[in-house]
Amino acid sequence: MSEQQNFDVVVIGAGPAGYHAAIRAAQLGLKTACIDAALGKDGKPALGGTCLRVGCIPSKALLDSSRQFWNLGHIFGEHGISTKDAKIDVPTMIGRKDKIVKQFTGGIAMLFKANKVTTFYGFGQLQPGNVVKVKQHDGTEVELKGTNVIIAAGSDSIELPFAKFGEHIVDNIGALDFEAVPKRLGVIGAGVIGLELGSVWNRLGSQVTILEALPNFLAAADAEVAKVSAREFKKQNLDIRLGAKVSKAEVKKDGVHVTYTDDKGEQAIVVDKLLVSVGRRAATKGLLADGTGVKVDARGMIEVDEHCHTGVDGVWAVGDCVRGPMLAHKGFEEGIAVAELIAGLPGHVNLDTIPWVIYTEPEIAWVGKTEEQLKAEGIPYKAGSFPFAAVGRAVAMAEPAGFVKVLAHAETDTVLGMHLVGANVSELVHEGVLTMEFKGSADDLARICHAHPSMSEAVHDAAMAVHKRSIHKAN
């Protein structure tokens, strides 16, 4: 083993949380190293974590390709645009996705170089005394000593014991790389990954059946948002079956035989491919050597305080491997906050204003509390909503589905939540995030001038509707 190398900050993992932490630490003048074990499809190191390689970015590339194809057959006619015998070339679509992934993973490498972050490619394990042992891909080992160590190990797909991943049963990685449109696609789990990747292949012509164990659709979202979303997905022929608990998945000659139980008893379907999207778990296996003092809970999550500190001097953890939502942008903020805390600056992440987005058509987004949560917590509130069907821009775009809802405290008028379903609401939700961060009121939002015609007018009118003064609908 080579001589131990010393750094101010050693980051384990170059996903969203890790690469943000490394770059920010380097910007602040700290000597920084970042370790990452991932390889791209070409077998070469690829920075950026699950998000850039096999998550957020590639899924959005496929969602956009499939959306273009769907619109060609379902919406272009409304505009007077006619086409004949439109076809999708799946290898070309996958190739475009791979090119985008390579662009962004390569971009992280360039940013590391520009910010003088030293990169090590291999698996890093934390030892006692803030030492990280790295087994590099070339077979050699190096030891890095960090005044501070930031663990950003990320997360992995949960594999079901009766549905092991392979050629026919896949996780998100496999579902991003189908060589052709499966005639029948089964999906276990109607969460973000299941809905997004189910939508991709459904738009391209696959018969998609989504099996969700919970009795309610999108239980984490606002009930009205979930109801409108379910209605739109039904129009798109997405077959979503609730209260469907899968017990068996067997690969046979004619496909994958999936057995599940619902309120009618035992049921079975046969599909060509089965996507398992039942959640993710912290990727902490083998990460901590004995004696580090870092605590891990029953689910494999690293235990931290509100500042992402593990309780072991100089050891921090951020992103998917700690409490809070497993979202790339939450990891971004934690990585930056910890780098700033290490440098002696104030660093803080407000988990109450993290936006959630599902990139289906229509998109689903929210921030803050739902009506159901406010009722359960006994918080008095007022609600105002406004439909996109009454927004000129939405109708002109042939995207009238959905609405915006603003929830405000009944006494102080402080915005407590915003819930949206519709076209491009992944962008609009940030009006709610910003208002909540500044402790703004529904009246504040209602008095801000919004461009006309724009999709954002639905936010404006929803805020006005909180006080029953919406102009464009009956209050």
TrEMBL record:
Looking at the record's lineage, which domain of life comes first? Bacteria
Principal location class: cytoplasm
Q: Which reaction does it catalyse?
A: N(6)-[(R)-dihydrolipoyl]-L-lysyl-[protein] + NAD(+) = N(6)-[(R)-lipoyl]-L-lysyl-[protein] + NADH + H(+)
Does the keyword Flavoprotein belong to this entry? yes
Sample GO molecular function, one term: dihydrolipoyl dehydrogenase (NADH) activity
Keywords attached to this Swiss-Prot or TrEMBL record, sorted alphabetically, are: Cytoplasm, Disulfide bond, FAD, Flavoprotein, NAD, Oxidoreductase, Redox-active center
Protein known as: Dihydrolipoyl dehydrogenase
Source organism per UniProt: Agrilutibacter niabensis
